[in-house]
Amino acid sequence: MAHLEFKCTVQVAALPEQTDPDRGLHAYSYTITITNAGDTPAQLIAREWTISDAAGTVQEVRGLAVVGHQPLLQPGESFRYSSWAQIATPQGTMRGRYLCVSEDAEVFYADIPEFLLAEASQLH
């Protein structure tokens, strides 16, 4: 049986040019690296995100592809992309998962563990 696994790492940075605290807009970029840690080629097909701010507002985002790509990754191969999110509070969290399909059409999910949306200077 094939070992199907995509591992994901995340880097977050504040986006000052998209942030306006007076209007309750706080923006963060995130860069995700997806690595095929399995032993079979597989493709990322779709994404789903849960974005929460400190006030408890939750945004659900679902869709095909990531930044217009549905990368087919060979074992050991990685794909990196950057995107961004905007929330109403200075801090929040994101978590999600990718819908993936192996070369022989076996469906699996790659989880992105919850990560913090915050400026490093805000963390004490």
From TrEMBL:
The gene is apaG. This is Co2+/Mg2+ efflux protein ApaG. It comes from the Bacteria. Residues 1-124 form the ApaG domain. Gene3D superfamilies: ApaG domain. SUPFAM superfamilies: ApaG-like. InterPro entries: ApaG_domain, ApaG_sf. Pfam families: DUF525.
